[in-house]
Write a structure and sequence with these properties.
300 residues, alpha/beta, UDP-N-acetylmuramoyl-L-alanine:D-glutamate ligase, four-stranded mixed β-sheet
């Protein structure tokens, strides 16, 4: 089994209380892939501009990622700049967003990728996400992520797309905003009624809430002693979650709970360094070692 991810491959400028980095390799597809690669083969669908360093291409390939559907176009690569201030590292203040070649991006994939069974539609315009979904040939599992910008500007498109996916991933604020509910329990139930079989609500330092119409399941976050840069933590979580599902090749209650745990552990490594500094160096033994201690802490 393998995974294909549609998202961004970007250049990020990040500032936190622990320092500042410029032109970091980032983006939702890159962060997702760094954890998903530990479990299965990963293909990236994204676009970069002529300013994207060849060294970054070589780096991604060195991690075993399939870049056959990474489009290179004239123009500038998607560039995001953000800052995390004070003790609240849950939310970044966006300082600058340059869409560049992303503004005219229409995803295409190489022959043979239409049959990849696990599809993750990372945060992008829901119309772009739907474009790729239409190309795919009956994927086994389709998961979707989004953000408040698309909830506010393309709500109808996003709600229509939710009817065609298996898993909806959102953070707590996004879930309540899209569902128009004032609690996470109500939000999860309302979102499930729209269409997705599973709703996965990320709560940052407070863990994750899962709902599938039959039961709720909640996991705490791994107790991190030091958070350096939380950028991409949600995508790293999703990569661990989807990667494990693809490796398992089936879905049942135990596999879902294990996938949530693996995603949680992957995200806990991501926040320990800037960008992909830590997640890109991970080995499966690192994940398994931390997961063993987490099971004792979380009692699941």
């Amino acid at each position: 089994m393998s995974v294909i991810v549609l998202g961004t491959v970007a250049l990020d400028d990040v500032k936190t209380p622990f320092g500042k980095r410029q032109n970091l390799l980032g983006g939702s597809a890159a962060h997702f892939s760094m954890s998903a690669r530990l479990f299965t083969k990963v293909s990236i669908v994204a676009v970069v501009g002529g300013d994207f360093p060849q060294s970054n291409i070589s780096f991604l390939k060195s991690k075993g990622l399939d870049l056959s559907s990474l489009s290179m176009q004239e123009g500038k690569t998607f560039h995001w700049a953000g800052e995390y201030k004070g003790e609240d590292l849950n939310t970044a203040i966006t300082l600058k967003t340059e869409l560049g070649v992303l503004s005219s991006f229409r995803p295409s994939i190489v022959k043979g990728q239409q049959g990849i069974p696990y599809l993750f539609l990372a945060n992008l315009d829901p119309d772009i996400q739907r474009h790729l979904l239409k190309i795919m040939r009956l994927p086994k599992i389709v998961a979707l992520d989004s953000m408040n910008y698309w909830i506010d500007t393309k709500r109808k498109s996003l709600l229509r797309l939710l009817k065609d996916v298996d898993i909806y991933c959102a953070n707590d604020k996004e879930a309540m905003s899209l569902s128009c509910e004032d609690s996470l329990i109500k939000a999860a139930k309302a979102l499930h009624k729209i269409g997705p079989r599973m709703v996965l609500i990320k709560k940052g330092e407070h863990g994750v809430l899962f709902y599938n119409g039959k039961y709720f399941f909640s996991l705490p976050a791994y107790p991190a002693e030091r958070v350096v840069d939380p950028t991409g933590a949600g995508d790293t979580f999703a990569g661990g979650f989807m990667g494990y599902l693809a490796k398992a090749g089936k879905v049942n209650d135990k596999i879902i709970k294990d996938a949530l745990a693996y995603g949680t552990i992957a995200a806990s490594f991501n926040i320990e360094g800037f960008g992909l500094e830590v997640s890109s160096k991970l080995k499966m033994r690192d994940i398994d070692k931390r997961l063993t201690s987490f099971r004792k802490y979380a009692s699941f």
